[in-house]
Amino acid sequence: MSAAVKPVIGVTMGDAAGIGPEIVVRALVEPEVREACHAIVIGDAGIMRDAVALTGLPCEIRAVSSVAEAEFRDGTIDVLDLRNIARSDFEPGRISAACGRAFVEYIRRAARMALSGEIDAVASAPTNKEAMHAAGEIYPGQTEIFAEESRSTDPFTILTGGKMRVFLVSSHVSLSQAIALVTQPRIELVIRKAVASLKELWGIDDPLIGVAGLNPHAGDGGLFGREEIEHVIPVLERLRAEGIRIEGPGPADSVYDRADRGAYDGVIGMYHDQGVIPLKRYGYVTVISGTPIIRTTAGHGTAYDIAWKGIGRANVMQRAVVLAAELAASRAARAR
Prior knowledge:
Layout: E1 8-12, H1 20-28, H2 31-36, E2 38-43, H3 45-55, E3 60-64, E4 76-81, H4 97-116, E5 121-124, H5 129-134, H6 142-150, E6 156-161, E7 164-168, H7 175-180, H8 184-202, E8 208-212, H9 227-241, E9 245-250, H10 252-260, E10 266-269, H11 272-280, E11 285-289, E12 295-298, H12 315-335
Parallel strand pairs: 1-2, 1-5, 2-4, 3-4, 5-12, 7-10, 8-9, 8-10
Antiparallel strand pairs: 6-7, 6-11, 11-12
Helix pairs in contact: 1-3, 1-12, 4-6, 8-9
């Protein structure tokens, strides 16, 4: 990719029974997206035409069989048409095995296109795990499919919003499990992943990492828990001795306030809600690291309750596409 060429972003359509098709249409007509990249939807052209009709936007769906056929013209959305689902195959707002089979195919095709260099990055619309499992595709989520396709053994999810990039020590586990996971090996692993990801994806060679404590006031010297003293601080001291720039552990409210104002390149959060709540105001975008594929996704679900009602908001999907384009352009610039 030369400096004058926009990155090509593959946008997966997501679960056809959810808000994916609608928000993809709404996102891809936005001038910010058009300016940032050339986008091609990987999905079903018929469903995308129905989504355009739903939105009432002045836009034409143009079915193509390869990226080479895409024209990226204003007023059109190019769709790599897999022709793998129809409106008669599902009921909007309901879990559907047909939708699960279809969107897994979009994910796999997008991953392979990214690996072959046909596209520069992927931005994924939301999917539903139950629909995926109903289709016999037993994965925890989309990330694991991208990892399988790229033969990556250790993918990691980064949460982004505003000026914050958050790396979680634990995610989808109970609070008691989250506390048990605050161990020296796990904290060190996540900090090293954060440093590597910030270098690889954002090109930040010497990142500053802020670390939030687990307990109120980061334990307040052991008054409110000893996890910081026994597990967090020893790791930070070792990594500082290696030259990694780290601040903390600090009270979580203060750490996230500083991060929101741009004080840190990355933040280590100790458990799911600690990291997600500060990002919710932005509608966060997730990024995967640890694979050769640049991939982002809107940090929300399929919103079955409002699917195909014409009221979906595409602001987060829009940011996911733009971030994918920015990361792809940054990678290309560093490779020159």
